[in-house]
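Lecture notes, unit on protein representations.

Consider one protein chain, 408 amino acids long.
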Amino acid sequence: MFNILFWIIIAIIVLSHLTGLFLDFLNIRMWSSKVPDRLTGLVDQEKYSKSQEYFRVTTNFGNVSSTVNLIAILLILFLSGFAWVDSLARSVTESQILVTLLFFAIIGLASNCLSLPFSWYGTFVIEEKFGFNRTTSATFIFDQLKGLFLWIILGIPVIALITWIFYETGKYFWVYVWIVITAFSVFMNIFYANLIVPLFNKQKPLEEGKLRDEIEILAISTGFKLSNIYTINGSKRSTKANAYFSGLGPKKRIVLYDTLIEDLTTEEIVGVLAHEIGHYRKKHSLLMLASGIVQTGLMLYIFSIFSNNRMLTEALGASESSFHISLLAFVLVYSPISLILSLFMNYISRHNEFSADRYAGDVYEGKHLASALKKLSLKNLSNLNPHPAFVFFYYSHPPLLNRLENLE
């Protein structure tokens, strides 16, 4: 009943889950009731104990969530659930494009129904327990509705176009799809802050005052336009603080959370800003975008080789070949390659963070960024003592101690 590709998919899914559990196990083994020697002087016992408890609770919650997802996907695969959804979509329409859209809409709705209770619990129970949550029920619900709205106005047209290209352009469809996805990615990178962020948060240029005056000195010395520095009301959802760089060309901007401004001194904020300017000056966003585009092209090319393979269709129990079934099966089989690429991207990301830290230390006193990183890590209850293997697999940013050593 099940072909060899089906069992390969099952093995990949199960092994991936077991790998995650093993890495969590290694990470948990680093837990200690007392402050480790390497953290002495960095954190007091009370704060360390609270961060360890937060780490333990979130890790256990994540394992429960991932196990439920594993059980769900295995049930769907063994019961030929994807084939059933495919048949259901085909019973509604004969249009290949509409069948694909219905298929992914049903799968997406089912996935959202499964993840929504976990998202709610994580926000209103775990984050609330540790004093992070400021999200109201209304905000949470409207965020879900806004996400659906974005899927309708952005996701549906892009999926429809890609499906049309698949059926109309022959074996080189992957090139055209690559062009479409690249154009969409560049568009989103340029206009994300202008079009998407305002749906969820309020952004405004940095106000006049001492902070702006201090930043202006840094902006002039580094060649970054002060008009591209914004604040955002992150406190609407959480007490956690952050800052980020987004956009390309004239649409680039640095965004500071209001919680960051509340928690740090002027010098520390300028230090964080110097770090973000470092990302801009060293073209990290552009390089990461280019890497993502290359990875997408690689995946699409490999998919083009197997897209008409009957085994992909049969692996999910479907009787008729289609773009959506082949793509879903391929994504499941491709996941080991995706994992390897993600390891590489995380390594590059950590390298970029070190580079931006060093840039901040060169253009502004590094001690201010170091002080800011300490405050943010302690406030956000970051795991200060992660296992190196866990960092290698999952961390896009280096652990605090490594960043402090790099700054020194």
